[in-house]
Amino acid sequence: MTNQKELQSELFGESVEQLQDCLSKLSTEDAAEVRKRWPSNLQSLALLIESQLTKASVNNPQGVGEAITLAIGHYFGGRDVYIPTDQRLKVALRDIQIWQEYKGNNIEQLANKFKLTERRIAEIIQHQRIVETERRQRRLF
Fold first, then answer.
1. What is the pTM of this model?
2. What domains does the chain contain, in order, with CATH numbers?
């Protein structure tokens, strides 16, 4: 059985490894010159990834960031990709927090705390209850 990692490697193909290998063989100055010629989107993405890897104390953040950027560029290159803002994630995390703090009789307090209406809190709880039930129970069909 093919595991997920192998399947993803097959999606990228050998060309990503070839790109990474070519870049790693360049001198520091030549590699910097090559990066300057990357499209601005890839340059920005590489810097963002490198910054996050540095914050996470990953060894060789520039090399790892470039490898990730090349893989993303290879896989998504030429596609029109929509990346949602972090607002959806924030709302989802807020809703989970509301569900975790819900005690059965504290809708008014939750509404005040999260600056939402009681009706909206009740809707969130109802939705989270459905999500929790689906998570715990297997579907029949």
1. 0.56
2. 4-76 (no CATH), 87-135 (1.10.10.60)
